[in-house]
What we know:
Strand order of the largest sheet: 1-2-3
Number of strands: 6
Structural class: mainly alpha
Bound molecules: s-citryldethia Coenzyme A
Oligomer: single chain
Amino acid sequence: MSDPKIVKLVDESSNRSSELPLINGTLGPACIDIGTLYKDTGHFTYDPGYGSTASTKSAITYIDGDQGVLLYRGYPIEQLAANSSFLEVAYLLLNGELPKPEEFKTFEHDVSHHTMMHESLKNFFQGFHHDAHPMAMLAAAVASLSAFYHDDLSVDDPADRKLAAIRLIAKMPTIAAACYRYSVGWPLRYPRNNLEYVDRFLHMMFEVPSEPLQMNPVAAKALDLLFILHADHEQNASTSTVRLVGSTGANPYASIAAGITALWGPAHGGANEAVLKQLEEIGTPDNVESAILRAKDKNDSFRLMGFGHRVYKNFDPRAKIIREMCHKVLAELGVNDPLLDVAMKLEEAALKDDYFVERKLYPNVDFYSGIIYKALGIPTEMFTVMFAIARTSGWIAHWIEQHETPGSRIGRPRQIYTGSDVRDYVPTAKR
Length: 431
Ligand code: SDX
């Protein structure tokens, strides 16, 4: 009886074989450890897009794409959405456990006392044209943070790692709000430490010198919930980017800035901005059918943004929560957005269409979030910035986890070379 913990792989052409151990985690499919495959068989594996490849072990987030399950440190996203706050979730992702009251009080104090950015950093925004995309400004500003904290950048020092995490979680809203205010020509706003995390952000975004800002509890609660839902998501493209950059020993600010730029793509976090622009382009429910036809047309690069997911082959649990939120928040804010009708009609039509059903394409986290951001007065170009504020907690939790894991190595994939065979240089006169 073969050992169930071993997979034997035989290359019949060379009769070389490899006995590869199976690794089981707490939940999810077992993984074949192919570490000795090249030595045993002389072969690499090939998996562009990493659809069948685990890049690391992690204890932070678990996703079951078939069942539509998402757990942060074992807690179902539905329960965290109903009972927690973004800052408490950030603590959970970083520390692995829900905080006791005194632990949260200390964490909240630490975060609120690292919210300011260096005064010199404010000058960075002057270098951008007023219509610069806020993601460009955010990525540049975050990467530059290492220039201000070079005394606390030892990736091997747990205290420096923790301080970087606090600084990043604290400063992302300040920098994000600065990106927005620079783009609309308003004076930048200092963080108010007496406000809670999301209220502080909304105050920095929308308070103007001419009149006090009426804080809106519905908006703050909705944004806090969106931040919880966007906080982490296992080894998605931007988190994998953070880990790959982190594996080189790069400082945390450079690693997180790499995650921000990876998130920007419309196939990833940039989808929430793309969804709203697509809904506006479709315009009315009557145009939904033609949009569905275009999305199915192989000769048309048009895709239904906010639909489909590499892992979820069922409803994205976050999309379910956000869809319910849409109705509640728009009603409470007294907003009647016709784009919500277009989105609902689009979802209804797609979920009945064989093309989407056969490919298990469901709405993902980005499909409805933009409608809420819009109702909160957040401009479309800022949608992915909102995603980045929330995901910074997940990114830095993964960055710390990788540095706490003994034996972590630099990430260095191989390739299938399809270029020219070896050949001699040809002098110019003979070309
Ligand atoms: C996020 O990884 C994460 O966890 C990401 C994220 C996170 O929290 O970090 O969840 C956040 O990025 C959500 C995804 C946001 N992106 C979008 O909404 C963009 C639209 N979606 C697609 O581009 C696509 O679905 C992806 C990128 C999300 C997933 O791409 P895959 O897994 O590589 O799937 P695929 O491109 O191989 O598609 C499989 C089939 C193809 O058709 P066939 O070639 O088999 O005929 O489905 C089709 C695709 O053409 N398809 C779509 C589609 N998505 C896939 N067709 C129309 N519209 C779509 N949106």
